[in-house]
Amino acid sequence: MYQQVAWMVSIVLIALLAIAFFYVVRQSSREGNGAAVAAATGRWRGRLLWGVTLLCIPVVAYTLTELPYARGAIANLGTVEVQAKGYQWYWEISQTELPVGKPIEFQVTSADVNHGFAIYDTDMKIVTQTQAMPGVTNVLRHTFEKPGTYKILCLEYCGVAHHSMMTELHVVAQ
Amino acid sequence: MNMQKEMPAVGAVKVYAAISGVVILLMMLFGLVMRMTQGQMLPIEPELFYQLMTAHGIGMVAIAGLGGSAVMWHFLGKYVNLRAGFAWANLAFFLAGVVLVLGGIFLGGFAAAWTFLYPLPANGMGQWGKHAAAAYMGGVLLVGVGMLLFYLESARAIMQKYGSFARALGWHFLRSGQDAPPATVIASTVVTIINIIAILIGAVILTMMLVNLYVPEIAIHPLLAKNLIFLFGHVFINSTIYMAVIAVYEILPKYTGRPWNVYKPFVWAWSATCLMVLTVYPHHLLMDYAQPLWMHIMGQIISYTSSLPVLALTLTATLGSIYRSNIKWDLTSALLVLSIFGWSAGVIPAVIDGTIAVNQVMHNTLWVPGHFHLYLLLGCVTMILGFTNWIANKEKAVGFSGLEKAMLWTFACSAFAYALMFLLSGQASVPRRWAVHLPEWLVYSQIASLFAAGVVISAMTIIVRAMGGIIRPARQA
Ligand SMILES: [Cu+2]
Fold first, then answer.
1. Which of B76, B214, B335, B412 is in Cβ range 3.0-4.6 Å of B386 for a Cys bridge?
2. Which pTM was predicted?
């Protein structure tokens, strides 16, 4: 979902920027009143700074309300704990058949170098990820909403067979 | 002006510009080869792919640094007394470092990516040994030492002229409204401060990792290492644009007849940037869940605030300076205006990816090279090409030939489309730094290869023609 939002917002804003450049460049070969243009530039500078500020404050505040980081222990029973460990170049996962609709806690680490633990859905879109770092356990919580075969891909470059570091999770209805 | 002092510095800037052109072209070819390999249009093995990837990354970072410092040296030298020996010393360290880096990669097989993330350099799994890793990291350290000498000299020269960094940053102007330092001096001072800090931090982590290579008992905490590497890496690469943009501040007024004035928000923005650039790097570690929460939140907030002020001011000032200015268009002025578009466009997907919720599904996908190819290829490199062309034309506005117009448009459209293909791939969850792509992803790389070829052909034409202009007078002399 966020992929589409990011793409659409980027394209629209870049297009607006391109339009501004085209417009100004088309007007560039005429001779205008330097002082008037400088004053107008100052007004546009103010508009842009205020506009961006007013746009960004709610966006930043809103997006900070749903952070992926696990905080504190999960109290509710029924959480499935899964240990995931990256090696050059394979994954060792304590349990690969997981229930749909239940919170899963992935405790992700690495035996050697940095890896990236990314979960891809059945359409090969990333649903969530964390880093797999040696000496560190990153706690990733996720609840699968649909059954199916999910894939784990390594998203941190880890050496010559990095791209073949893939495995599967089977999410089943119970 | 003392001619004897000036001439060698001009010579150094020309040599910097020439080397930058050649290396940029070579690295672009590596990029084309990588995209074609990912599109299965070239039979390159993963071993070589990851070596090319490592070389492309470090090569582009280093040459953006060298090209940017050529711009800074050239224009800062008009306001303060820089000693040419330091430019040559930087170059000597640079070349020695490059030899070591290339040897480590192509003779030693080193391929841990340019970010040399600990402890991958020590874990080549037989593809490279510790001497290859040491050659690479030692080479990067040498390049850093050269740059450090360069910035220490600019710091000394700025202090000599302005008395303090505060005055060179224009803080007195905020109070009195008098004696604003030139934009070039403000930008150079910011880069000098942040890069001295960044390079020292880079030198610390590189030295620690070199020791660890040979004495593995002296281990480093991987999360600390990652923090240090990205603090160094982010500040350094960010600074390349802040140096290169000086070309826009200095050269564009020659085409528009409108001076690049320093006003109070400009001073504020650059001073704010000085602090924020040093603290924004945690946005590279948003997916390291073990990192303290406050650093994640700071990473997102500063991502939004750090890039916007200087950019918003440079963007509006650039557009305002060309609007109805009867500007003289030639390749130089067109490249410089294009570069501000590329920089501004690149910041948009970058800031979006600095949002934690987005980063969770975009981190380490091709979205990342998407945004940085916008502001490095279409921004920083384009500024350096504009500067190189300016030097090649002996710092004069010249005509705009049909061939130049064709090459400019080819370059602009190809580079833009090339970066968009990365963004589109990232949106489709295609990972970055994968030598072999899944069948459903091939089409993105194949289309991107076409645009990469357009970039290489147009950039080659622009660079080769500029080289001619740079080398010719040297032969006559
Ligand atoms: Cu891996």
1. B335
2. 0.95
